[in-house]
Each structure stands twice: as structure tokens, then as C-alpha cells.
Amino acid sequence: MTVATTDTLDGLTVSDYAERFYESHNYGYGPDKDGTILLISMEDHDWYMATYGYAITAFTDAGIQYIGEEMTGDLSDGDFAAAFDTFADECDDFITQAKTGEPYDIGYEKMCQENNIELCKLPQKQKNAYAYYRTIYSYLKKVKADIVHVHGSSALIAVELLIAMLAGVPVRVSHSHNTICSHPLLHQVLKPILKVVSNYHLACGELAGKWMYGDRAFQVIPNAFDTKTFVLNSDKRFSIRKKLGVDDNLVIGHIGKFNSQKNQEYLIRAFEKLSYIDDKAMLLLAGNGPDLENIRGQAQRTVCADRIIFWGETTNPESLYSAMDIFALPSRFEGLPVVLLEAQISGLPCIVSDKVTREVDFGDIIWKSIEDDPQIWADTILSMGQRTEVQRKQYRLQHVKQIARYDIKESAKLVENIYECKLLKKK
Hints:
The chain is α/β, with parallel strands linked by helices.
């Protein structure tokens, strides 16, 4: 952790100055230069926090914003010592939290507060299942909920829905988001119970619905989002690539939780094969999860460790898509992956595991088996070619109708209609 002040930025932006200061002094630990710097500009009364290596994971965008808000009062009063103490204390808390596998991120919490949405924080189910389920039951009884909508990857969500039924909730919606799970036997045992405790069935896609409900009726509500956000942005592309030190290098990107499902281990093996052919290519990995440190260790043992970038979690994935040239998704299984939709909207060529549902294909995805030698993925990526910025924007315009299906406003209307119809029937 570094704190620095400067009287002049020498014509640079505060962010550029902070990054140059950190790099020119060779700060940071290990091959990824793990660390962070807080730079205070006395010249224009501004500040910037730059992160490197593991710090990118520990300090999310929302987290950095939070730290800034905590320091603002002292900085405005000119009490820099107090501001620096706050910065040090917050850094310690954030790093401690990140080591649990779940970096501190207030983005959604803040959004809920701004929209007067009450949050009920649950105990961790893995540590104390009884407390977790008891809290759900008590809260539902207290607020006299009309609707409970439970999302999951298996019929294990029947337990939460059973609790909702016992708590007197009239409308109980199950929502399937995957096509496989880590406990298939339990899934099969609980499927009949799910049929009883859930009175409306939703799925993110056809395959996810058949997995959860079999031959029973269900409605598909695609995983939706603000599609306009993911249009290629030339300025963001330039900014991110500059931060990464990338010129005309090929940047292969991936965004996802670091776990067995997302299979980043295979992607690193494929990239190492590719690196022998293209010695300037970069692999950009964004996300967090329980397997992050194992994957980071695997990357450090490769011959191309210096060209594998761990970005950490981000609240602005659209900027990363803009910076990428090719998107790779080697998942072992998926329901309906939103990241693949986002990447296509950004106009990226995509190479994807054939274990992923093809419902998300706009028509140009390259499908490959993860049973193949990683060399096949490496060769395929190199043969795919990069799209120009104009071509990427044209690609999006050519698929406007397909993209509209995943617009958050349309999906929100569908869910609202379901809630209203089910409540009317119960009254």
C-alpha cells in the first residue's frame, strides 16, 4: 500500500500520474506487482487509487468508490493524516474480506437503498444451515410476503420454497438457471417436492427448464440486462488497452466466476499453446471465485505468465469487452450465460464450449469441444481473425431483433405480468 501527494501533475491526468508513479518506483509484490497507490493531487484537489495484481481483485470499482466517500470529509478539511489513516484501515478490511473469496462490493446494496428496497442479510448456508433457513422463515412471516421468487441450478431450491409455503406465502416461483449441478442425486430426489412447493415455473432457457422441470410446463424468461450498455465504446477500448500496456496485441478475454464450471484451467492451457505461436497475445481474465488462487498459481507456472492478466471483479464489464478482440468461454456447463450475450452485443468473435446451450448464438459463434487438445482451441483462436471497430458495430446492428429479446425492460414487464396474474388468482 502506497500513499503519495504531488504539487503538480506535469500535464498528466491524476490517474496517469498515479500509475506512472507506482510503476516507475517499482512498487508491488511478486510477479504481478500486487499493491495499490493512493495519489493526492494538490494542484487540482483530486485523488486517484490505482490497483495492481491481487489488489484489482480485492478492491472492486464500487469498493474504491466507497473508500473515496469515506475519505472525502477529511480531504475536504485538509486533514490528510486522518484521510490516510482511513485509507489504511479500509485497505486492511478490504484485503481481509477478499481473502474469504468474496471481495467487498456495495454496488447492489447501494442500488437497493436508493430504490427503497429492504435487504435481509442471511447467514452463510454452508456454515450454519439452520440459521440460514430460520432467518428466511422469520423474515417471510414478519413481512407477510405475497411472492417468493427463488433462483437456482437444482431442485435444492425446493427447501427455500417449502419454507415459503410454511410461512404462508401464496405465490412461490422457482427459476432454473443451469443444466447440471454438483449434487445430481439430491436434485432427482427433490424434484417431486419442487413440483408441490412451487406454483409457477420459470427458466432462463429451454435446456435449463427441461433440466429442472422435466415434462412439466414452464416459461422461459431470458437472463436480461441493459443491452445498450454493451455497445463497443472506442474511448473505453483505448483507455483499458492503454492501462494494460497493449498496443496492437491480440487480447483474448474471459469474464466469469473462477470455479470448476467456468473451466478457466482449460483456457490457460490453450493460451499457453497459443503463446508459442503469437508471442505478443494477451489473456485478460476478469472475475473472482473460490478457484481464483489456484488458477493464478497455474498461470504463474506457464511460460507466458507475464501475458495473463487477472483483472479482478468489475462493475463495468462493458469497458473490458470493448478492450478485447476475442471472447472465450470454455465452460463445462451453463444455463444461459449472460456474458456470452454481452460479448456478442459488443461485436466480439466468440469461441465457446459445446457444453453451452446454443440458444445464445446469434449465428457466428465458433463451437469447440473441451475434450479436445487445447492446441485445437489455440489454433482456432488464431484463425478467427479480429474485427475492426466498424465491423463490430455493424455486427450489432445486424442482430438488433435477437438482442431485443434480452432487453431488461422487456423481461421486467414479463415478470411483473406473472406476479400480477398469479396474485389475482390467489385472491
